[in-house]
Amino acid sequence: MITDDMKEKARNLAVQHGLDPDSEPFRWIRVRNQEQPVLYADRTTVDQLMKIYGLSADIIDQGFERFDSGILVAWAKARVTDGAKSRVSLGAVRAPAHSAFEIANALMKAETKAVRRAVIRFLALPVVDESELDTMETSPGTETSPGQPSPASPPPASPRAEERPEELIKEIQQLANSLREIQGDLTVRSTVWNAVPRKVSKPEDYSLEELRRIRNALQAKLRDSSA
User: Collapsing DSSP states into helix, strand and coil, what is residue 123?
Assistant: First the structure.
């Protein structure tokens, strides 16, 4: 459930970055196949943050990738800077392959997602952008208040007593390779990010719980791909 402490954390984060907490720029939301709610930024929040911090953004690369399965993905790379430092992020969305208009629209969405992700990365915000929710492997649930039942969701995989980080990392690598062969590297990276929305320099930097979430997300994605 979404506790009072979690709501207070979201309000404090808004105040910290000069946003109106009453407008709820940061909100908690439950996502199926994830044990804990995730904090996300409202669609207008990133634009406000760019103005507050004087950030500018430009698209440095973009294109399309067609996978063997026939899926067409539009992608874009964006750079956000304040003049002294910069961050680059990738945004990708699925593009209908039968309509030039819809393909162009998908490319614009990829550009928007790339910019928003770059801003979040630049400010090191512990959130996902609202545009990320449409690429999570399952649709988000609704917020719940203390005392209210959580939305129905598949039960999380029970941790095995013998699980160790090195074993989970090996299993994750195998799952990632299998998924990469079916849907490509972009899908693997998106699935991992949706499970644990933070950057690490090496797999060992993830906690045991985060490794389990990544493992479960990759398993669910592979099941969907095989269905």
Answer: coil
Closest listed residue to residue 128, CA positions, set 81, 74, 195: 195
Distance CA 196, CA 194 (A): 6
Question: In this structure, what DSSP letter does residue 136 have?
Answer: S
Count, residues in the chain: 227
Look at residue 82 and give its three-state secondary structure. coil
Taking only the tens place, the pLDDT of each residue in 135-170 is 554 333 444 333 344 444 444 444 444 568 888 898
* Contact by Cβ (8 Å): 93, 74: yes
Residue at 33: amino acid letter: N
- Stated pTM of the model: 0.56
| 108 CB-near residues (< 8 Å, 6+ apart) | none
Please give the domain boundaries of the chain with CATH numbers for all domains. 4-135 (3.30.390), 165-226 (no CATH)
CA atoms of 55 and 141, how far apart (whole Å): 32
Tokens representing residue 34 in the block: 């994830």
Distances in whole angstroms, Cα of residue 156 to Cα of each of 31, 33, 212, 216, 222? 12, 6, 10, 8, 16
